[in-house]
Amino acid sequence: MLRNAGGEVTDDVLRSLTISQHEPGTPEITLIHHAQCGMQTFTNKDFKAELAAQTGHKPHWASLAFTDVDDDLRKSIVRVKAYPFLNHTHEVRGRRLRCRDGQPARNPVTPGRLPRSGSVAGVVVLRVSAIRGS
Ligand SMILES: [Zn+2]
Predict the structure, then answer these.
(1) What's the CA-to-centroid distance between 132 and ligand 1, angstroms?
(2) Domain at 62, CATH number
(3) N or C: more exposed end of the chain, with fewer CB within 10 A?
(4) Could you tell me if 80 and 2 are in contact, meaning their C-beta atoms sit under 8 angstroms apart?
(5) Centroid of ligand 1 to alpha carbon of 36 (angstroms)
(6) 113 Cα–ligand 1 center, Å
């Protein structure tokens, strides 16, 4: 299980997923978000500005805050499926967990229309498990 703030799939998470699939051969990936995530309570821009005001330094990374959990999960599934170094992308699921008890909230999220492989480029913003994280 890979955990971080917001369940973001950062470059390091993709590195770990890739190694996990190529060495032990992990066949499935489940992306888990909080149903009501703290990452929805601020914006990337405001967060950076706040840090800069407090510390005098701007982080080189984005907070990866988002507004809609389902939308973010769908986009994350699409990006995991399009990531070229993963062997097993036929079983990528998205789930929301209720923060109060960690139980699943509603049905799994499934991607609508998947882009052709290779059509997702640029910054990788994906999610992996963030159970009771941020
Ligand atoms: Zn959260």
Answers:
(1) 7
(2) 3.40.1050.10
(3) N
(4) no
(5) 7
(6) 26
pTM: predicted TM-score of the whole model, two decimal places: 0.70
How far does the centroid of ligand 1 lie from the alpha carbon of residue 35, in Å?
Answer: 8
Cα–Cα distance list, 52 to 32, 34, 103, 121 (Å) = 30, 28, 37, 29
Q: Within its chain, how far is the Cα of 105 from the centroid? A: 17
* Confidence class for position 113, pLDDT limits 50, 70, 90: very low
Q: Is residue 134 part of a domain?
A: no
> 40: CA distance to ligand 1 center in Å?
8
- In angstroms, the CA 79 to CA 111 distance is 10
Q: Give distance in angstroms: CA of 127 to centre of ligand 1.
A: 11
Count of structural domains, the chain: 1
Q: Which tens digit of pLDDT belongs to each residue from 29-67?
A: 888 888 888 889 999 999 999 999 999 999 999 999 999
